[in-house]
Amino acid sequence: MLVEVVLGSVALLVFVIYLHRQKCHRIRDRMGLNGPSPNAFLGNLGQLGVEMKKNGMLMAKVFTKWADEFGETFGYYSGPVLFVVSKNLDLIQGVLVRRFDCFTDRMKMPFISGALSESLLFVEHSKWKYMRSILSPTFTTGKIKKMTTTVAQKIDKVVKRLEEHSITGESFDIFEIYKGMTLDVIAKVAFGIDSNCINDSNDSFLNHTRQYFNDQPSPNKNISVMIGVLFPEIGPLFAHYWSYTAEQGKSEKWLFQVLMEVIKERAETHNSKSEYFDTLKLLLDQSHTADENGRHLTHLEIANNCFVFLLAGYETTSTALAFTTWLLAKNQDKQDLLSEEVKENPLRICQRKTGTTVMKLPYLDAVFHEATRVFPPVTFFVNRTCTQDCVIEGLRFEKGDQFGVNVLSVHYDPENWSEPEKFLPERFINKKSYHAMSWMPFGAGPRNCIGMRFAEMEFKFALAKFMMDFRIKFGPDSEDPLPIQNDGVLQNPRRVIVQVEKR
After folding, report:
1. Is 434 exposed, middle or buried (0-12, 13-18, 19+ CB in 10 A)?
2. Would the pTM of this model clear 0.85, i.e. be above it?
3. pLDDT at 353 over 60
4. Where are the domains of the chain?
5. Mean per-residue pLDDT for 484-500?
6. Is 386 labeled as ligand-binding?
7. HSE-up of 404 (CA within 13 Å, CB side)?
8. Alpha carbon of residue 99 to chain centroid
9. Which CATH superfamily is domain 87-502 in?
10. Helix (H, G, I), strand (E, B), or coil: what is residue 390?
11. Residue 88: is its pLDDT beyond 80?
12. 3-class secondary structure, 491
């Protein structure tokens, strides 16, 4: 009898879910969009998985193919949830900028938990607006300018490593060195600790950070996460499981404990004129200032958002530097132009306390923009949830609809860029020549990357110093095309094997 009741209940649940899916899968027709035919339970995730295997697991390439087949704006279903994906620049600008009031939130990801879920990245609009207003002063040009000394100290360590490789003439993976550098930088400016990841591959901070990133729960790794994505109706039943059994929880706990200890110590001796100057000090300064509603930034909120800085400042910046290094090694003529520019401006490179002058070097700026166009580190995190009904560019959105930008499609659209497959920094010398939405490695609109200017400063400062001292070139073990891995949100090279020689 019990078995019959259980089976009957399961059958009823499946039937109810099926009816709900049928209703959900009519939303695309209501919007007048095309797209691949959905499966009743999987939506289009089955087709997406098959296509990703054919395309080297690059989700963005699948979306580009579907855009060619179904139009520049199309819809696909993740289980019951419709995603509107577009490369139409006016529609993108409408969603991200002009009608931001209707698209204030990012999509809720059921497998994101812990510190990140309560950080600026994922909190909903009312809390996001408060956090952003408190955190934004940390990343003003003047505040970033004062952090250049810390960045330069870490870059000097990389220079010593590159000098060693120039003497031996051996090939090596420069991506690993960049990871160590960016992590040392973010450990100092966000966590307030001195790590030695550049020179010590067994550094505890490095190992725990790597594990934290490598073991993030995803549908590909965790069956409960897959169930939560496919069946959000019952997803909350599994939330406890993926939050507390994921391996990354161990590393998050270690990192969080270290961070809270530093915050506690610094708070007890806090002085706005103290010797420290990093984002942690700036956030502690901000925690003493109330917003218009009398709220103060708590120590827990500071810790949660330091995890955002870890996420934004570690993998994305090192990835951008690695991709750029490979492009310059392949395009020696572009590398020579960049080297000539930085050598003509040695004081701008060496005066660390005025490091923001490096930001004004025109060809360096063009290389930064073009390299992140060709290889944007983030390929599908520019997504928004509709929070109130609206019409944009003739398309009617209802509350709960999801919108995403296929950044690679935008960056490689010949309508936006002539010869998009080529690395041509010169195209960015005149910034008025392109649509504002045609370049978005950091997103766009009010909810873009808060640390964009800091990442740009670190990138330019490092690359300028390396180009002043070294020539980077391919060796016998270098790879062309470059092997790339993509988890659907981030893309990075598996390795970047190069050789260096002193200039």
Report:
1. middle
2. yes
3. no
4. 87-502
5. 87
6. no
7. 27
8. 23
9. Cytochrome P450 (1.10.630.10)
10. strand
11. yes
12. strand
